[in-house]
Amino acid sequence: MVCEPERIPATSLVTTNPDKKINQYVQRRVLHTKHGSSTIMLCRDSNTEGREVVVKAVKRLSIQDKSKMFKKSYVAARRNDPPSSEQSVQKEISILRACRHASHVQLLEVIDDPSQDSVFIAMEYLCGGQIQWECQGKPTLTTEQSRRIVRDVVLGLEYLHYHGIIHRDIKPANLVWSGDRSYVKIIDYGISHYSSNCVQVSRPHTRPQLDPLRNCTFFKDQELLKMRGTGFFYAPEVIWLPKDTPSPSTSSDTIEPCETPATRPPVTKSVDVWCLAVTLYCFLFGHFPFHPTKKRHNQYALNKLILDNDWEVDETMGADAVLTGGRRHPPHTPSVIGLLDQMLQKDPSKRISIVELKRHPWILQGIEDVDGWTWNTSPATYYMHPSYRWLRQLLYRLFSTYGW
Questions:
Q1: Is the separation of the CB atoms in 268 and 298 below 8 Å?
Q2: Which residues form a coiled coil (predicted)?
């Protein structure tokens, strides 16, 4: 699952023409535009027999950057720093360079011409599109499809967390199908964060895979205190409020209040587990686990529900209408409802980790060789010395064959 590191081309000159061509990339259509700060285009690479690629154009100066530059306080404090938008794109590029893994979209080229007002990021194109998980409030994925998708995402998050990276915005819109819909990949690292204190790689200073992250000086841990992400997927620690803050009425009288931490917990990689749990819930039930009434549908009301209230389940789940058995399952049950209970813990210190999640019976269901799959997909395996890796594989085969 872990790809060999390779040199990503970095081009410092952009040539354009009236035919909507950026160097060798010929624009076919615009896929998405975000607040005027970035544009995502589907292009054809004329250097590789017309291969389709995605090119993301990110402006060096956002509208907010331009307005801030007129303030004297900003000029005095930040005159030697790049604008925040340019810092963000450099952070995203450094994470893309480090993500050489089958569950992550692959970076192809960075075009950074100082004379241009945008930085261009060329990435692989996944023609299966975003995951469509509901139709008129009903789930469109079967429970088995949901399991396969979540399994791919777990492997991708395990790789990120192993390298000290938090994605911070896992949601269906950031999971994209391959052309044959046999697997999904994680995309969009615009608000992702790297911390050297969270790296699990042994002797990280000797690992060239981490060079792009080490060389980027814009990662500051205080950035984790900012409310970043997507409303319905916010983890409680991201939107924490004091306990005495008034709560709006809930969407159901049967939903019970939950115990939340009295003080704000730190934002850690557990935030990705929460976001993945909300994503899995959406796949299974076709709606969000926390949703204010129409009368009180605003971000504050949603935040209070996420912080203070429990979640409920429907009678059935998935497009195949599998019976859920209700909300209350015994602790550490192998069911997916029990798994959601471990993932949707308000206190991140009590939340299941990605490593534990990977070993959960519901995730492993359908895998014949569990130990082999766990071993082969571990990011730690890639960093082992080849001789030790060979010895481990030999011992594993002997144990599997003769039952030693």
A1: no
A2: none
Query: Annotated catalytic, 169?
Result: yes
Q: What are phi and psi of 25, to 5 degrees?
A: -95, 115
Q: Which fold has domain 10-125?
A: Phosphorylase Kinase; domain 1 (3.30.200)
SS (HEC) of 374-400: HHHCCHHHHCCCHHHHHHHHHHHHHHH
Alpha helices in 186-243 (DSSP H): 211-214
For residue 184, the surrounding DSSP H or E stretch is: strand 184-186
Looking at the DSSP bridge assignments, the partners of residue 52 are 44
CA 401 from chain centre, in angstroms, equals 38
Q: What is the residue-wise DSSP string for 114-143?
A: TTSSEEEEEEE--TTEE---EETTEE-S-H
Is residue 286 classed exposed, middle or buried when 0-12, 13-18 and 19+ CB atoms within 10 A define those classes? Answer: buried
CB 126 within 8 A of CB 179: yes
Pairing of strands 10-11, 107-111: parallel
Structural domain boundaries in the chain: 10-125, 126-366
CA–CA distance from 256 to each of 78, 307, 309 (Å)? 48, 12, 6
Q: Which of 152, 169, 310, 341 is the catalytic position? A: 169
Is the model's pTM score more than 0.85? Answer: yes
Q: Please write the tens of the pLDDT for every residue from 326-359.
A: 988 776 678 999 999 999 999 999 999 999 999 9
The pLDDT tens digits of the residues spanning 65-117 come to 555 555 555 555 555 566 678 899 999 999 999 999 999 999 999 999 999 99
Tokens matching residue 74: 């900003």
Buried b (16+ CB within 10 A) or exposed e, 362-388: bbeeeeeeeeeeeeebbbebbbeeeee
